[in-house]
Design brief:
Layout: E1 3-9, H1 13-24, E2 29-33, H2 40-45, H3 47-66, H4 81-105, E3 109-112, E4 115-119, E5 122-125, E6 128-137, E7 141-143, E8 156-157, H5 159-162, E9 171-175, H6 179-190, E10 194-198, H7 210-222, E11 226-228, E12 231-238, E13 243-249, E14 255-260, E15 262-265, E16 269-271, H8 278-281, E17 304-306, H9 317-331, E18 345-347, E19 352-357, H10 360-366, E20 370-376, H11 381-385, E21 392-398, E22 404-411, H12 414-426, H13 431-435, H14 446-454
Bound molecules: 1,4-dihydronicotinamide adenine dinucleotide.
1,4-dihydronicotinamide adenine dinucleotide is lined by residues 146, 175-181, 183, 198-201, 206, 232-233, 266-269, 315-316, 345-348.
């Protein structure tokens, strides 16, 4: 038994970042993690390994489609799936070991095992009982499936199974056109699979800007992904070699079946709080099973806090990280703050999609007057040079004050460019502030400036 200022349950981006900040602020800190390695879903079976596969298959796609026209002749690379897995696992290993190093550096104890909370101030791991002034729950989320669909991680897989299939399938059916479905669908389409995405709503990427939805769907279609929208999956059956998915079209109620080697279920995630014993100590959950917290991430039980995917808000690693740092500040007696209005979201397809703040739809609903500055990458020399002229930057600003309210990008390096706009929004900047900032030429960032110019007197290269 040991006494700590803070015990954090879960070492994902929320938990490990929280631990490092707690230690930096002088709190004696331990993290409980039952996985073999630190980093949670994101590092082990989420964001990081998927980015490795996206990168490798993007290079393949680039070689197949663009090399010859740049005068790079020769046979396109062939795929060594085993080596691609080794590369992916190596990337994961480097990152998880990096966190272990940071824990040692910051004198954070890693208590290995699965924790539960028998009483406020106490955490049980196996037979050991640990005490802490504060407990932070950072247990993340797990894949949620839909009625009639059972994930076996063999033929019917979640995002975890999608990272380490024995071999790339010839055909893949994806249920849900959200982030995971489009990212992993892209990976396997580039590896030659026939990919069909079945989506319940009438558009892909729910909640995103409508222009982005349409443009992304058009581009992904050109890359070989097929979409069946407005279709509710009823169930999936599978044999050792095949799967059969039944779906119903919303427009006429007709039922259809589709066969595929593998089905990826990407219909969202749900908070993971199993085994914590929250019921027993009276930690309240929301109707959607998230841990209810107040503006200081305190749960309904004094001394117990919660952050990340286990609570309300977008299930994004960087949102969890921000909450991890903020709650650490609170526990150290300072003010912790997260600006939920400026949390970017990125889809790592090619081209990338990035979004922050309000959409035109959300502003219309709120009845708030706005203006839009939009700039096509076709007018950006650098984007055209690398065959990525499709897509645009759209900045939305307040009609009267010109203050930036949101931005939506689809195009090269969108996931990087979005941060210029995030910083501007944090500073309460106007579109004109970006428009008057000198941007190096030739860069993709110039497209952001051009969109900002388009909010005023007009873009130059449009
Ligand atoms: P999602 O919530 O992004 O998309 C799920 C989709 O499934 C929705 O479009 C929904 O309408 C559809 N759907 C639900 N039931 C259906 C049915 N019966 N038939 C057909 N379609 C149906 O969920 P996803 O992609 O599983 O991702 C889970 C979470 O992980 C998200 O919160 C996401 O933000 C996060 N994530 C973020 C990444 C990133 O930031 N790049 C990467 C991967 C995941």
């Amino acid at each position: 038994m040991a006494n700590y200022d803070v015990i954090i349950i879960g070492a994902g981006p929320g938990g490990y970042v929280c631990a490092i900040r707690c230690a930096q602020l002088g709190l004696k800190t331990a993290v409980i993690e039952g996985r073999e390695t630190l980093g949670g879903t994101c590092l082990n079976v989420g964001c990081i390994p998927s980015k490795a596969l996206l990168h490798a298959t993007h290079c393949l796609h680039d070689a197949e489609t663009n090399f010859a026209r740049m005068g790079l002749k020769g046979k396109s690379p062939s795929v060594d799936w085993k080596q691609m897995q080794v590369y992916k696992d190596d990337v994961v290993g480097q990152n998880t070991k990096g966190i272990e190093f940071l824990f040692k550096k910051n004198k954070i104890d890693w208590i290995k095992g699965w924790g539960s909370i028998p009483a406020p101030g106490k955490v049980k791991v196996g037979e050991e009982l640990h005490e802490a002034r504060h407990i932070v729950i950072a247990t993340g989320s797990q894949s949620a499936t839909i009625p009639g669909v059972e994930i076996d991680e063999d033929r019917v897989i979640s995002s975890t199974g999608a990272l380490s299939l024995a071999k790339p399938p010839k055909s893949l059916l994806v249920i849900g056109a959200g982030v995971i479905g489009l990212e992993m669908g892209s990976v396997y389409a580039r590896l030659g699979a026939r990919v069909t995405v079945v989506e319940y709503l009438d558009a892909i990427t729910p909640g995103m800007d409508r222009d982005v939805q349409k443009t992304l769907q058009r581009i992904l279609k050109k890359q070989g992904l097929e979409f069946i929208l407005g279709a509710a999956v009823q169930g999936v059956t599978s044999t050792r070699t095949k799967t059969r998915t039944t779906y119903r079209l919303k427009k006429d109620g007709s039922e259809h079946v589709l066969d595929a080697d593998v089905v990826l279920v990407s219909t969202g995630r749900r908070p993971f709080t199993d085994g914590l014993g929250l019921d027993g100590i009276g930690v309240q959950l929301t109707e959607r099973g998230q841990i209810a917290t107040d503006s200081t991430w305190a749960t309904t039980v004094p001394g117990i806090y919660a952050i990340g995917d286990a609570i309300e808000g977008p299930m994004l690693a960087h949102k969890a990280e921000d909450e991890g740092m903020a709650v650490a500040e609170v526990l150290a007696g300072k003010k912790g703050h997260v600006n939920y209005g400026v949390i970017p979201s990125v889809i790592y397809t090619t081209p990338e999609v990035a979004s922050v703040g309000e959409t035109e739809q959300s502003l219309k609903e709120a009845g708030r007057p706005y203006k839009v500055g939009k700039f096509s990458y076709m007018g950006n020399a650098r984007a055209k040079a690398v065959f990525q002229g499709e897509g645009f930057v759209k900045i939305i600003a307040d009609k009267q004050t010109d203050r930036i309210l949101g931005a939506h990008l689809i195009g090269p390096a969108a996931g990087e460019l979005i941060h210029e706009i995030c910083v501007a929004m944090e500073f309460g900047a106007s579109a004109e502030d970006i428009a008057l900032t000198c941007h190096a030429h030739p860069t993709w960032s110039e497209a952001v400036r051009e969109a900002a110019l388009a909010c005023g007197d007009g873009a130059i290269h449009a």
